[in-house]
């Protein structure tokens, strides 16, 4: 057996189970440290972006959106899937901010990258901070977006909601805490910071 931390978890074989519109499911056979192999189910994802949009009064824009797997509405950040493998992430974030809440911003920075559930999916969400907000026309993209409730909360209240369990979306929780850290003096990364863990496998299937 190799030294702990030195084993290469090589994929021996792989088979597709389901290829859908926004996710794929495959089963990989992976070489394990003891010399055998194990099966790992992997949900492939396009990757997504989310936005902490802060106004001049440090109020953050949240949306109340129905999430079918949980069966109820959640408070979340404006967010959405990347449209294509070559979409610039901050431009995807700008698009989602306009579509979901009718806002644009003149200052953008990167807050955090969030691996949604790395035990079974390659989904990673990049969360941006958007400041110097302005109003733009909102272009509704479907029935779900027409049902969104949009509300502004003081950032401190949104953080309290996250700590109280009233906000449970992972990207929202991480983004709000990161935004609070930035407002307290932590310097965020630039909007075009490298994103080495951006998902690519599922997007490549669409080419």
UniProtKB/TrEMBL annotation:
The keyword Repeat does not apply. One of its GO terms (biological process) is nucleoside phosphate metabolic process. Residues 185-207 are annotated as: Disordered. InterPro entries: NUDIX_hydrolase-like_dom_sf (IPR015797), NUDIX_hydrolase_dom (IPR000086). Pfam families: NUDIX (PF00293). Keywords: Hydrolase. It comes from Umezawaea tangerina. This is ADP-ribose pyrophosphatase. Residues 185-194 have a biased composition (Low complexity). GO terms for cellular component: cytosol. One of its GO terms (molecular function) is hydrolase activity. Residues 43-175 form the Nudix hydrolase domain. It comes from the Bacteria. The keyword Transferase does not apply.
